[in-house]
Amino acid sequence: MQKIAPIKVQDEEISVEFTVVVPMTVQANNQHKHEEIQKRIQAVDEQIAECEAYADKLNSKIDNLTNHADKIDYTVAIASGVLCGIIDAVFVGELDLAECREWGSKTVDKFVKKVSGEDNLEKAIKKLEQKTKNFASDPNLGDFGGGLQHHLRDFAHHPTIVGLAFSILTQFTEMCYGTDVTGKFIVVPVKDKTRIADTIPKKLAYATVDWFLHLVSDMAGSHSSAGKGTGIPGPILALAKELSVLPPFSLIKLKNGNQDITISQLISKIFNGTLFAKRDKNGKIIKDSVVGLDLRTGIGILKKQMLPIILNEVIVRSFYSIRRLVVELRENKIRKFSDILHLDWRKIAPVGNRTVERMMTIASGTFMACDMAVAAVKSAGKSAGNPVAFVSSFILNVNFVGIGRFALAVFTDVKMGQKKERLENERVILYSQMLNLTNAKLCYIQMDMWLGIENMDRIEAEMWQSCADTEKTIAEAYETMIFSVNYFSDEWVKIAKSLETIKALSKKVEEKNPGLVEELFSDDTPKINDSED
Fold first, then answer.
1. CB 276: neighbour CB atoms within 10 A?
2. H/E element holding 141?
3. Measured between alpha carbons, how far is 475 from 507 in angstroms, rounded to an integer?
4. Counting Cβ atoms within 10 Å, is residue 78 exposed (0-12), middle (13-18) or buried (19+)?
5. What integer pLDDT is reported at residue 530 of this predicted model?
6. How many C-beta atoms lie closer than 10 Å to residue 17's C-beta?
7. What is the pLDDT of residue 371?
8. In degrees rounded to 5, what are phi and psi of residue 2?
9. Domain residue spans in the chain?
10. According to a count of CB atoms within 10 Å of the terminal CB, is the N or C end of the chain lower?
11. Dihedral of CA 487/490/493/498: which sign?
């Protein structure tokens, strides 16, 4: 019921009342539109809820990939690295290759017997050799240094990804790949063409399965010299040999007495053991002192050098875990044992987060710095200026397991940083989508208030276009911010360099004209008149 203001008719006030009746068709249409809009608002709310849940997961992952280490964490990591470096220098010391070879041989012999299914090592090797008669490059041992060197110089005999690639390449090209005696990369034809398969599946089988089993048989030498013959190079030495044929390594030459030898030749001396062998008064090698640095010796080195690496790992991760446990107990006000179950153990566990990985990077880096410093000092004292002798001594004193652990720590830390950056960018996009959805919800609410208005479909289309434009504007603003930060950083470096240049020039001017710089910048220097007069 509606009323209008009273009106006068011949000095009498008359009040008029009326009722506005909305046709049933209009009411029904508005009700239908209201229900439709409410459904769309509900759908948007569900999308926003999904985005919020995903944003929580992203924030948790980003926090886990963020380094929260402080001064105390860094101090403990450095102290652990130094302590383990001292332990390595005192208790591990210089490697005894004969002892390492003995340890490694036992492990390799067991592995060869297990793969072949034979209890006797000689029979085990012979059985594997018979099974791998399709390994194509083995008859070419004469092209790669014979029985003593072909496992190193023939790249298909390397237990690496590169070795597997060359084994496959040999099947498809009928060529063998490796180095000559000087370290130069050479390619020679396969001598026994019956070992080249005639179909692609067979080629791949010969180049992979036979390759692996052949390397297993070669680990402990041939069946005629089981346990004593030349084995295969370890992965690190094999990789070094592969890199030695590439510039700049192929161009480097080292002084060895009156001779110059290449990096590749130096690696060959390491493999066959002549680099570390003892010599008599006449400079000739004592045969019993020759121990090659093949895979068996490498396994022994790994076993001996593991102690300080494991200790470094235990100290750092234990400290991290205990310190975070204390913090969690304090923050959650734990009063009884059952409350411990409610702790966030993800924050306490010393694995899978950026903080503990950064601590391990610092600890392993410190360990390697101490280890290499000690190795360099010892080697410099023994080598008397001979580069090859220095390298020989340095290899026996440096901890190779520590090098591998440091490389792994750096790789893990960097990878986590890259993943964090990717997730942060994803979070920015997600937040812009959530803003887009929120704007859409507001527009739907306004549409619900505008029931009865015409062209609602057009209004809705314009609404979504407006939301899309808003999201695009936010993305462009974000890109502009990143560009501005990078530009400011680059310009700041240029300004700093310019200031250093000006400072250097002023010193030169002062040297040649004493007092001139002071006079130019003194308060008594005449001022330039900038007025129009």
1. 19
2. none
3. 49
4. middle
5. 43
6. 8
7. 93
8. -120, 150
9. 27-64+415-523
10. C
11. negative
177 φ/ψ angles, rounded to the nearest 5 degrees: -130, 135
CA distance 235 to 214: 16
The confidence band for 340, taking pLDDT boundaries of 50, 70 and 90, is confident
pLDDT of residue 79: 96
Report the phi/psi class of residue 487: left, alpha or beta, with left for phi > 0 and alpha for psi in -120 to 50. Answer: alpha
Burial 291-328 (b: 16+ CB within 10 A, else e): bbbbbbbbbbbbebbebbbebbbebbbebbbebbbeeb
Question: Which candidate, 303, 239, 298, places its Cα nearest to that of 273?
Answer: 298
Predicted TM-score (pTM) of the model is 0.69
**First-last CA distance in the chain:** 83
CA atoms within 13 A on the CB side of 506: 12
Residue from 238, 79, 264 nearest 152 by CA: 238
As a whole number, mean pLDDT of residues 461-480 equals 63
- Tokens, residue 428: 């920015």
Length of the chain equals 533
Q: If you average pLDDT over residues 71-98, what whole number do you get?
A: 92
* Exposure letters 53-67 (e unless 16+ CB within 10 A, then b): eebeebeeebebbeb
In terms of Cβ atoms closer than 10 Å to its own Cβ (0-12, 13-18, 19+), residue 6 is exposed
Chain segment 360-396, per-residue pLDDT in tens: 999 999 999 999 999 999 888 888 778 888 888 898 8
Cα-trace Rg, the chain: 38
Residues 6+ apart with CB under 8 A from 394: 375, 376, 379
Strands 185-189 and 175-179 turn out to be antiparallel
What does the DSSP assignment read for 93-115?
A: -S--HHHHHHHHHHHHHHHHHHH
User: CA quadruple 201, 204, 209, 210: dihedral positive or negative?
Assistant: positive
Write the CB contacts of 452 (distance below 8 Å, at least 6 apart in sequence).
Answer: 26, 30
185, β-bridge pairs: 179
Amino acid at 411: F
- Per-residue model confidence (pLDDT) at position 287: 78
